[in-house]
From TrEMBL:
PANTHER family reported in the protein's UniProt record: ACYL-COA DEHYDROGENASE (PTHR43884), ACYL-COA DEHYDROGENASE YDBM-RELATED (PTHR43884:SF25)
Keywords: FAD, Flavoprotein, Oxidoreductase
UniProt-recorded name of the protein: Alkylation response protein AidB-like acyl-CoA dehydrogenase
Cofactor: FAD
The Acyl-CoA oxidase/dehydrogenase middle domain, residue ranges: 128-222
Acyl-CoA dehydrogenase/oxidase C-terminal domain sequence ranges: 251-367
Species in which this protein is naturally found: Evansella vedderi
CDD domains (alphabetical): ACAD
The UniProt record lists the keyword Flavoprotein: yes
Amino acid sequence: MDPNTLSFIKTEKQERLWNKANDLVKSFQGRAAVYDQDALFPIENFHDLKNNGLTALTVPQKYGGEEINLYEFLLIQETIAKGDAATALSLGWHNGTIMQLRDTKKWEEAVFQKVANSVVDEHKIINTAATEPSTGSPARGGKPETTAVKNKDGWLINGKKTFTSLAPVLDWIIITATAHDGETEFFGEFLLQRETPGIHFEETWDTLGMRATRSDDLILTNLQVPSSALVATKDPGHGRTPQGWLLHIPACYLGIALAARNDAIEFAKSYQPNTLPHPISEVPEVRRKIATMDLGLMKARHFMYHVASIWDEYPEKRNTLGAELAAVKTVGTNTAIEVVDLAMRIVGGQSLHRSKAFERYYRDVRAGLHNPPSDDLTMMALGKKAVEEYQ
């Protein structure tokens, strides 16, 4: 077992799950460069994930899934990200969405069961599309410009969503909209099926990093859905209630950092310039950089898994963990960026070559800054909490 992860494996179930994910890492590493270069969704990787039951991990056991907890979810995310970050982040949105629905029970059980059964039996994929061009991140509380108007046949939906990760393979799509029922206006969540007329994906995803997530635009044009498509009503924006499942984000980026760290050490142990009588791994400054990487990873990972343990073991405390969850994301993603930078400094100019993975790690890891919550929102929340709680 990877010694970097050994201390985080506490049960036989966790070891079994980790082994299942780790068995896919090498094949994912082998495909990652092509997916990234051509901005192709990792279809083969998701085929492997489905066949190994990794897309049904968060489905309740009563519906045929593993019903993993948050801690186990993060172990999977970190491990898959060492193979291919875009695959891990995409998987995280799918499994995380199911985890949120499972734990919040905000849908009618029959609707959730239908989706859960399709994930287990038919390998269906789900994600939420909430971000819009004018409103930006839902975490900032913008009012959806996508509209749903009540009519005799149900709801007529029009709008545009951006950053729709997993676009090429989505079967179920949850969208947020400003709904009008003829009397009142409210914010609603609607469950859509991909094949419904009026749903179109525009291939706009051409980005610096995380290119293979294919987070394309979703266009909804005169989309007629039945009344039952309205599955929940909600306040505008996300993040008002702590959402533990979003820790899949820092777990993914820490996985990238672990891969960069491992690759840098492998390089340092094998590279010996003719100016030295030994590999650069014996150079004190190189060892200092390696130690700095490991110290950062230790702090970020122990913080993340500790908060996840509290979430799992003390459900009654979940509503008080908003600041900690946001802090984990900020610490995790920024640590990951620092570790990748150090890894590239160890490798030197060779780290810039596309034949090595470092330049992809560098581009992918920076995407973490733009996943929710952003650093500024985290710092605002921490500052507000400190002042209001001071006695």
